[in-house]
Amino acid sequence: MTFRPRFVRYLCRMAETLALAPDASRKQRYEALSNRWKSLLGNEPNRMANLANAAAVLKEAFDWHWVGFYLVDKQRDELVLGPFQGPLACTRLHHGKGVCAAAWDEATAQVVPNVHEFEGHVACSSLTESELVIPIVSADEVVAVLDIDSVNRDDVSAADVAGLTPLVDFLGQNWKAWE
Predict the structure, then answer these.
(1) Taking burial as the number of CB atoms within 10 A of a residue's CB, which of 11, 39, 76, 143 is the most buried?
(2) Is residue 70 part of a domain?
(3) Closest to 137 measured CA to CA, from 175, 178, 93, 164
(4) How far apart are the C-alpha atoms of 171 and 54, rounded to whole Å?
(5) Is the pLDDT assigned to residue 23 strictly greater than 80?
(6) Are 87 and 81 in contact (CB under 8 A)?
């Protein structure tokens, strides 16, 4: 057996765990990822690194237009842009304006098959046609939201919320433990 330094073994393990069948359905992709979040993110103590990798995995696995996180900035009482994958994004979002704020304010997932029908939608990208936002809850408090934008109308559903629940739960359970 060849000796590999610890960081090389870690990188090899990461690459092996991301292999997804190119012809897999969305449901199959969620199932493949559902039990991997702990192994993908559990050994890294830095919250931003974990959020960045989660966004990268979701962008690669589902090829959405934009995948990222907005974090609650308690001091300013706003959502502030966190790690993401995709084009330029809005930096700060405010209560009562947009899908992300609705998820934050109501502490519930927001499934928006057509953003043009969502009153008060904040268009960070004019290409976005559908959006999914799921709050991340830690110690009974919304600490961030996972935001997913698609260029296809009707591209998000309750099935996506169910498929992303293992990730969102894992993030919420570990939020306070991470630096």
Answers:
(1) 143
(2) yes
(3) 175
(4) 10
(5) yes
(6) no
The confidence score (pLDDT) of residue 10 equals: 46
Please name every residue paired with 147 in a beta bridge, in sequence order, or none if there are none. Answer: 68, 133
13 beta partners: none
Q: Check: CB of residue 70 under 8 Å from CB of residue 81.
A: yes
29 in any annotated domain: yes
| Domain presence at residue 1 | no
Give the CATH number, domain containing residue 143: 3.30.450.40
Q: Which of 7-21, 120-134, 155-169 has the lowest mean pLDDT?
A: 7-21
Q: What is the pTM of this model?
A: 0.89
Quick: pLDDT tens for 76-93.
999 999 999 999 999 999
Q: CA end-to-end span of the chain, whole Å?
A: 35
Q: Assess contact for 121 and 115: CB atoms under 8 A.
A: yes
Sign of the C-alpha dihedral computed for residues 119, 122, 128 and 134 taken in this order: negative
Mean pLDDT calculated for residue range 15-41: 84
